Automatic annotation (TrEMBL):
Organism: Dermabacter vaginalis
Gene3D superfamilies: 3.40.50.1360, Winged helix-like DNA-binding domain superfamily/Winged helix DNA-binding domain
SUPFAM superfamilies: NagB/RpiA/CoA transferase-like (SSF100950)
Protein keywords: DNA-binding, Transcription, Transcription regulation
Name of this chain's protein: Sugar-binding domain-containing protein
Transmembrane segments: none
Domain Sugar-binding: 65-306
InterPro entries: NagB/RpiA_transferase-like, SorC_transcr_regulators, Sugar-bd_dom_put, WH-like_DNA-bd_sf
Listed PANTHER family: TRANSCRIPTIONAL REGULATOR LSRR, TRANSCRIPTIONAL REGULATOR-RELATED
Pfam families from the UniProt entry: Sugar-bind
Length: 309
């Protein structure tokens, strides 16, 4: 009988079935031939004696045992790692909470904050509820498939209630030609001029290799074919790069309403928010471009990045 096992082994067996396999105490009582009250006592004893160790990871708490070595590994100044769980949507929500915490630490009164586009950036913006008076600048045009996830709309109320300012860029992301881009930026020259004066920028990272980027649906077949030809690892704010950090396909970027590499290079703090196994190469490439100074990601992604060379 399992009940005749030495007590430490019995406790370990009960804990494995209860905590890892979600078997109820009533079911365990039948299976092990002991009362559910004894099971409860044994589980409590197991916790007291250290046989059972429960780890609860709060998704809103940084994991310094991963964030600190990851910052060193990637050469980044600001890194936060969360213990995410659930669906992709759940993970984006959790990343959004941590991203908002980090920006809350970094953004000061009078700062200029640049917001890119994307679902995870939108989640960060949604969580930025208490802000000092700042100016927020939209640094990328809107994605046609993502009107429900507008970062600039998500942050608008918090900015205006703090007596801050919002500068929208009411244009599509992809505009078909460099000439059309030039004309639109002439129309919105004031907003474009603010790209030169950013204190902090928030961007997402997309993976072209795995089509884990909303931009895939924005481009016509000819542009997709060009990107497939150069094989970028990923993109941030419409800037394409390989895993070594080499910038690719600038002619594609010149057909997009977004800032340029020199704008990010001169911005003191550029925070990327991204997670997922399919984005590991893209995150590595983004860090190696030198265009980002910070990253918010999750535990699994951090471990994969630390294993990468």
């Amino acid at each position: 009988m399992d009940a005749e096992l030495p007590e430490p082994q019995l406790i370990a067996s009960l804990a494995r079935r209860h905590y890892l396999e979600d078997v109820s105490k009533v079911q365990l009582a039948k299976e092990f031939g002991i009362s559910r009250f004894r099971i409860a006592r044994l589980l409590a004893k197991g916790r007291e004696e250290g046989i059972i160790r429960l780890e609860i990871i709060d998704p809103s708490t940084d994991l310094p045992m991963l964030s600190e070595p990851l910052a060193s590994h990637l050469g980044l100044r600001y890194v936060r790692v969360i213990g995410s769980n659930g669906t992709d949507t759940d993970v984006r929500t959790q990343l959004g909470s941590m991203g908002a915490q980090l920006l809350g630490e970094l953004v000061k009164p009078g700062d200029n904050l640049g917001l890119g586009w994307g679902r995870t950036v939108a989640e960060v913006a949604k969580n930025l509820r208490h802000l000092p008076p700042i100016t927020v600048i939209q640094i990328s045009g809107a994605l046609a498939a993502a009107h429900a996830s507008s970062p600039i709309d998500n942050i608008r109320e918090a900015v205006l209630s703090a007596n801050g300012y919002i500068h929208d860029l009411p244009v599509p992301f992809y505009v078909r030609s460099p000439e059309m881009r030039r004309q639109l930026f002439e129309t919105h020259s004031y907003v474009r001029g603010q790209f030169e004066h950013l204190d902090t920028a928030l961007v997402s990272i997309g993976s072209w290799e795995h089509k884990e980027t909303q931009l895939y649906r924005e481009f016509p077949p000819s542009v997709r074919a060009r990107l497939d030809q150069v094989k970028p690892a990923g993109e941030l704010a419409g800037i394409w790069f390989d895993e070594t950090g080499r910038v690719l396909a600038p002619e594609v970027t010149r057909m997009c309403m977004t800032l340029e590499t020199h704008h990010l290079s001169q911005t003191p703090r550029v925070i990327a928010v991204a997670a997922g196994a399919k984005k590991v190469s893209a995150i590595l490439g983004a860090a190696r471009t030198g265009l980002i100074t910070g990253l918010v990601t999750d535990r699994d992604t951090a471990e994969a990045l630390l294993d990468a060379h």
